[in-house]
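Is this the right way to post structure tokens for a design question? Let me know if I should format differently. Anyway, here goes:
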């Protein structure tokens, strides 16, 4: 497990992102914040693309993106060939995103889940391993060639 996490989002996810960074640091993670750095209205692609490019370049193994619904950041992240972003709002979804899909980016919907659940989802996502096997065959078919 990599202890260096990339994190970003938009203005709707800013408060959760700021608080989650502190929680992750307290758990021993090193966190690179890709922004935004204030709660002012912001365009999530400006933060998602650099974060995903850094993951594709091997600078980080995993990332967390937070916006209002989680959809915008997930859609943008999944435009990158090396990214498998999963929008999660339950503990089972976070576990399955890692176990079956080898997701490398967790997308969280700040307007639809309480912060304590966001922390649980991040913890599950960051500590759950990919099962491989039949799932690896499927994951290897995801990228467009």
């Amino acid at each position: 497990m990599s202890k260096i996490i990339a994190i970003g989002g938009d203005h709707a996810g800013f408060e959760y992102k700021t608080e989650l960074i502190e929680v992750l640091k307290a758990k021993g993670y090193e966190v690179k914040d890709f922004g935004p750095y204030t709660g002012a209205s912001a365009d999530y692609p400006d933060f998602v693309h650099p974060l995903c490019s850094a993951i594709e370049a091997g600078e980080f193994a995993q990332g967390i993106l937070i916006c209002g619904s989680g959809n915008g950041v997930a859609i943008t992240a999944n435009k990158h060939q090396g990214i498998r972003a999963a929008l999660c709002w339950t503990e089972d979804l976070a576990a399955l995103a890692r176990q079956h899909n080898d997701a490398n980016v967790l997308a969280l919907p700040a307007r639809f889940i309480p912060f304590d659940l966001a922390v649980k989802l991040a913890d599950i996502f960051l500590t759950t391993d990919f099962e491989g096997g039949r799932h690896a065959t499927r994951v290897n078919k995801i990228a467009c060639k």
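Format looks fine. Someone answered above. Worth noting: The chain is about 40% helix and 15% strand. Strands lie at 4-9, 30-33, 62-67, 85-87, 105-109.
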